């Protein structure tokens, strides 16, 4: 945890009357480069981005637990500056090919299912080449809904 993140978290705990031993799941940015990270953060802060999709294989390869309902996370910009706390409200495990527009539009990034698929295929192929999995239409994803509870 960086000093900025620690200070932000402590302010969040005090301002929301939470126990001092409350922990967060992760501090992270959305996307895989500076431009997307900062653009997606802006969508979160404006209330347009309320969900995200991740590869089950990426969690497994990193030996990280899946997000769970009720967990808190800190969203940062590309440089790691904290901007808000989100709380997971729903977690759905499903095949990539089963994504619907009703679900993916909650990510706030795409105008239709086809553009969501195109953008996420690119993301998952890039991530897969870095961490060691291959994209397929049958691959499992974690679709996580969240709400901003502090900024």
What does this structure look like?
The chain is of the alpha+beta class and 151 residues long. It has a five-stranded mixed beta sheet. Helices cover 36% and strands 25% of the residues. The longest helix has 19 residues, at 113-131. The chain is globular. Strand 3 (72-76) and strand 4 form a beta hairpin. The protein has five helices and five strands.
Q: What letter string, H or E per element, gives the SSE order?
A: HEHEHEEHHE
List low-confidence stretches.
Answer: none
Radius of gyration: 15 Å
Silhouette: globular
Taken as a percent bin, the fraction of beta residues is: 25-35%
Helical stretch tally: 5
Largest sheet: 5 strands, mixed
Task: Give, in spatial order, the strands making up the sheet with the most strands.
Answer: 1-3-4-5-2
Helix/sheet category: alpha+beta
Number of strands: 5
Mean pLDDT: 95
How much helix, percentage-wise, in residues? 25-40%
Whole-Å distance between the termini?
18 Å
Features of this protein?
globular, alpha+beta, 5-stranded mixed beta sheet
């Amino acid at each position: 945890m960086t000093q900025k993140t620690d200070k932000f978290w402590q302010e969040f705990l005090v301002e929301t009357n939470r126990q001092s031993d409350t922990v967060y799941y992760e501090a992270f940015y959305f996307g895989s480069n500076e431009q997307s990270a900062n653009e997606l953060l802006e969508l979160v802060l404006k209330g347009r981005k309320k969900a995200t999709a991740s590869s089950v294989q990426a969690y497994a390869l990193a030996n990280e637990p899946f997000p769970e309902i009720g967990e808190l996370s800190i969203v940062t910009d590309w440089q790691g500056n904290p901007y808000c706390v989100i709380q997971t409200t729903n977690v759905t495990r499903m095949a990539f090919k089963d994504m619907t527009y009703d679900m993916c539009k909650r990510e706030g990034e795409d105008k239709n299912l086809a553009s969501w698929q195109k953008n996420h295929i690119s993301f998952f192929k890039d991530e897969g080449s870095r961490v060691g999995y291959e994209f397929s239409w049958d691959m499992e994803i974690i679709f996580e809904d969240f709400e901003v509870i502090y900024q």
